[in-house]
Amino acid sequence: MKRRDFLAAGTLSAAALACRRKPEFPFQGELVGPDLALGHWLRGGAFADPEHFEPVSVLIVGGGVAGLSAAWRLAGAGLDDFRVLELEREPGGTSRSDRNHVSAFPWAAHYLPVPDRGNHAVLRLLEECGVLEGFDAKGDPLFAEEATVRAPEERIFAFGQWWEGLYLRAGASPEDERQYHAFFREVDRWAAFRDAKGRPAFSIPRSRCSGEPEPVALDRLSFAAWLDQRGFTSQRLRWLLDYACRDDYGSRLDTTSAWAGLFYFAARKQGPGEDSRPLLTWPEGNGFLINHLRRASEGRLHCGVMATAIREEKDSLLVTAWDNLNQQRVGWKAQHVIFAGPQHVAKHVIAGLAEARPAAVRIRNAPWMVANITLRARPQEPTFPLAWDNVLRDSEALGYVAATHQSLRDYGPSVWTWYRPFTGPDCDAERARLRALDWPACARMVMDDLRPAHPDLEGLVTRLDVMRWGHAMVRPAPGLLWDPTFLALSRPFGRIHFAHTELSGLALFEEAQDHGLRAAEEVLAASGRRGESWR
Amino acid sequence: MPESLESPTPTLKAPLLFISVLLIASCGLIYELVAGTLSSYLLGDSVMQFSTVIGVYLSAMGLGSYLSKFIQRGLARRFVDLELGVALVGGFSAPILFQAFAHTHAFRVVLYGVVMAVGTLVGLEIPILMRILKNQVRFKDLIAGVLTLDYMGALFASILFPLLFMPKLGLVRTSLLFGLLNATVGLWCTYLLASQLGPTRLIRLRCLAVMALLAVGLVFAGKFTLVLEEEVFADEIVYAKDSPYQRIVLTRGRGSFQLFLNGNLQFSSADEYRYHEALVHPAFSLRPDAKRVLICGGGDGLAVREVLKHASVQEIVLVDLDPAMTDMALRQPMVRELNGAALEDPRVKVINADAMVWLQETTGPPFDIAFVDFPDPNTYALGKLYTSRFYRLLQRRLTDDAMVAVQSTSPLMARESFWCIATTMEAAGFKVHPYHLAVPSFGVWGFALASKRDFAIPTHVLPGLRHLSDEATAAMFAFPRDMDRVPTEVNRLDNQVLVHLYAREWRRWS
Q1: Proportion of chain A above pLDDT 90, given as a percent
Q2: Which of A96, B269, B335, B436 could form a disulfide with B446 if both were Cys (CB 3.0 to 4.6 A apart)?
Q3: CB distance B496–A149 less than 8 Å?
Q4: Which residue numbers of A have CB closer than 8 Å to B's CBs?
Q5: ipTM of the complex in this document
Q6: CATH homologous superfamily for B268-507?
């Protein structure tokens, strides 16, 4: 290279460096799992058999709350010959969590309403975790103070400032207040409902709910239509109820069944006229529960392994899987399979299922975006102080939860977990929209959303990581929850048992756990190990 | 340059003049907002203050517009002078108003006078500028351009004022900064309108002088706020520091000095000995052999001073959130003298951490005595330090026969709050004997003495103290009827009832 060429090249590269665009944000981050490519690879079709099928009594496909709960139940009964396959690198599904140098933080599900005394399964789990401290004189459970949400629990940003609580009282008219109270009287009425067998209309898990016509009729209506019928027109009230639908179901008033809408409120009542049950939470959200549950699968949990085919052969099930870590085909020969994944995967993986159970109802899963924002310091705020849950009224997102709130840190760095469900009527279109977003687009969405409340936030952020959940939560659309063909999806298919929160039509920890225990107890009964139910 | 503006001049830069419309419109609105906010701060009733300030301001602008017709000649020069006038009156409006509030009884007269003056001057700006531009631009474009930018400037100002300027700069710096901007527009116009100004040297010097004056004001604004706060604190401020956690202020007057955190009195050197003797010595009466002592809060070192009077003590761990506080206790001469350089004692170990997080996340050998000396629970962040969870965490770090003394606000002024603290400690498993004494600068003040085991109230106390004697010690544990026990809820992390109780009770006294 001649000297002149060298100089020219140098000048050019210097010019190229100078022209490189300044990054849009003064912080970094990345898109983290779930592994979209690997998941969708399933649809590709035929896979060859592995060289060897390892014998095992029970194979659990899916290491989310349902799968880990099934394993927990089997281990509890002394049935230790099981394996759990999890597609992702970490178990937990939407209850996954992570931690960095500032705090532990959730990647999605982040709280649990305290269970009533009849919810034996959750009480058993919380007792094991050291969160259940005993029972009061009336027999109601007492929970560790540090696990119940610390006050202030919620605040809402509206009219340019933060206010205490989630329902915006500032500026509410007497008619708003009247409708607010009338709605909660209606909730109380449903909380008091008992059918001839003494079952409540609404309870968690829903397997304890009455299937009588009066409550079930609510499922045919949308929540919006039910509100219209009763003259609930208050914009503030409807905002609150719509927020509840977006938060728990990823849907809106008009795409949520009235049964599900009332379930949200009535199932959490301690009793008619009483407050909602307090919430249990941890800095890592429901990751706290996962970190306990996974111990039951210690040494038997295979992450990064995707079941690709399940078929019955003679008296056992042959399961073919792809071990993504070791890049090889693996196989198991199981007596029973607990399929703890969603139905849209089941129909690709389980031979003969799609033909045997033609879809009568369509299960729709809402996509979600969750961002974890690491802050070097907190913004200066002159109005109501940082709470656990911080909600912006004029936003499509749900606001953010401060992970450091529960660990008592009121100063210095924090991690905020920001949630946004994609609530459009067409889940597939919403999913495509979410998938098309790259990291800068996601970061822009988060920062634009928070800017009205925190104009000085950008300079405080050190990292912003984003999880795009394609199938975050099942939507309880009108007509789904009590449809007989939908309910029949929980029944075993030969030696295959199903466990997933989706089978309740409600994406809740308790539902996933209940299905996990049911499936495990079906397997235990079939293996001749009948014992007392944990449910 | 008589009538020079009447003949079109090709050098006139209309678009650039339009930009100055945007700037002066922002400035005008900022002065209005500063006056409204400041009067709301000082007089309360923000609806009334904003309403009257806006009313007076707008009518003054009308007056200014009317008066503009009497300005016949030398429009460009008048416009530059006008900018300098607005810069001075508007720019110094916040400092002037603060001073007026502190030093005169006629604050409202000064307030409306200043608002009137700024409004009139601002009212003159646009009509004169339009007359300067009228031969350059078609009338319909002129009206459209000027008014559009006028309103847009108002929009920028109204959005940036609450979001940026108020939180970042405060009122005094904001008003001075916009004064500087007005003066800059004046200087800039000496170039834009040079052809109409004739000799500009003197005018530019005037501009620079006004800018210098405002810049000096900006530089010394920090000193200025200190002077202003003194009016609030009633005494001379000798030390002030903003830490990430709080504003620390020391004042001196009438033969003593006082410490304030966020404006709340923490001690007065005149009578703090009563408070700190009462906090420390009763617990020692029951554990005279205590070796390891924990102090949560108490960064001023005054409790440490009392603890060091006990020869048995081998180690004192002081956990205070704010390094600025413990640094002041070590270095500020008045405070250091008052605490007897207690924090320099080799037995003292200072840890700067949130005491509750520290208790939760660390382990170590147990303490024989713990003193809990936090500011009153007037925020959630302080309220958590009075919860059953806090007391349970504390218990884990105590020997079985350890004593604890907790400052628990006034049993007279905040009776329910006081008993809520005792009730909460009992719920956490402590046996509690509350006590109280008079601290003149605070009023009647209360503490809770506690232990994991039953104990009898102390009847002896270290001899040679300034306030406490054996008789006085025993007497502190008797509660007259107006301070006697009332039933309350337990203050838990998930309800923080104490913060609400405390706010409600102290509202009656302020």
Answers
A1: 83
A2: B436
A3: no
A4: 145-146, 148-153, 160, 278, 377, 380, 382, 385, 407-412, 455-456
A5: 0.87
A6: Vaccinia Virus protein VP39 (3.40.50.150)
